[in-house]
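Let's practice the habit of predicting before peeking. Look at the sequence and jot down your guess about where helices and strands might fall. Then scroll down.
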Amino acid sequence: MRRDGAANREKVLLAAEHVFAEKGAAASTDEVARRAGVSIATVFRNFATKQDLIEATAVRYLEKLTAEALRLADGQDAGKAFASLVKTLAAAGPVKMTLLDLLPPHDDDGQGLSRPVTEAADAFRAALDGALHRAQAAGAARSEVTGDDVSLLLRALAYATDLSEGEALDRAVGIVLDGLGVPR
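Done guessing? Here is the structure:
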């Protein structure tokens, strides 16, 4: 792919992330093109259908969260690193859940998703589980907590959170971290 084509694709994906997060299923590809500063033809040159654009946006977002999870988990203090990760994921959760809700019907294990989405979701989950296990090994998280527990709590926070609820979200994340036995 040419450099300008790759740059346009990235602009479209970034714009799509914001448009889909704001408008959900009502988001239009015209709005994505407008925000990206490209023509609608450029959007469809990169993504044959709106569903292809949604999937690519979800994959890109999951990959970004995975990279952040791996970066945070590498912190020297496993407990503080896991607490930072939970805070980061809680704040990112509403966008993630909106994108995943726009995908075709699927179960909680990702059955029914395309291969790229499934692979990105699996990598994200592995990064989350790795950070949890590291915190548990350091005695900074309750040993009986599972990745499924943390994932459920993060999904609940995502669905219950409005992005403008900064203080309420901070308190809720603090309560979740207390319950997980993670020092803040």
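How did you do? The two ends are 45 Å apart (CA to CA).
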